[in-house]
Amino acid sequence: QVQLVESGGGLVQTGGSLRLSCSASGFTRDYYAIGWFRQAPGKEREGVSCILSSDDTTAYADSVKGRFTISRDSAKNTVYLQMNSLKPEDTAVYYCAHAPWDYLVLDADEYDYWGQGTQVTVSS
Predict the structure, then answer these.
(1) What pLDDT, on the 0 to 100 scale, is given for residue 29?
(2) Which residue, 18, 12, 2, is CA-closest to 67?
(3) How far lies 30's CA from each of 53, 76, 77, in Å?
(4) Which residue from 29, 52, 28, 53 is spatially nearest to 105, judged by alpha carbons?
(5) pLDDT tens across the length of the chain (124 residues)
(6) pLDDT at site 49
(7) Which end of the chain is more exposed for a tag (fewer CB within 10 A), N or C?
């Protein structure tokens, strides 16, 4: 059973930074994708970024390109999301998720396991 646990959320001012962590366990496949998603109140879940276990290839939503960086520490089974130059519109619950595919995708329907989420609030 795949388990994902997010941490690192919090309250930060506009322009600040946060680093989210996604600790993972129970993987049964050699190749998979880990994605970060976010959901703000009253809005649909949005794909933010993802990374492949096979070669650490990454993808980003246009809204976060140049500000967010996804990375992976395979020894710790942890995926990080470094978020810089944060804006109030980045405020949301952030989730990490597992997809059993070896390709980049930011469609939530492609992901089969999800963490419980961590709140990120950016004050203006």
Answers:
(1) 82
(2) 18
(3) 8, 15, 12
(4) 52
(5) 889 999 999 999 999 999 999 999 998 888 999 999 999 999 999 999 999 999 999 999 999 999 999 999 999 999 999 999 999 999 999 999 999 989 999 999 999 999 999 999 999 9
(6) 98
(7) N
Q: CA-CA distance, 116 to 103, in Å (whole number)?
A: 24
State how beta strands 10-13 and 118-123 pair: parallel
Q: Identify the CA nearest to 39 among candidates 99, 117, 113.
A: 117
Output the pLDDT for position 27: 83
Contacts of 113 (CB under 8 A, 6+ apart): 2, 3, 4, 97, 98
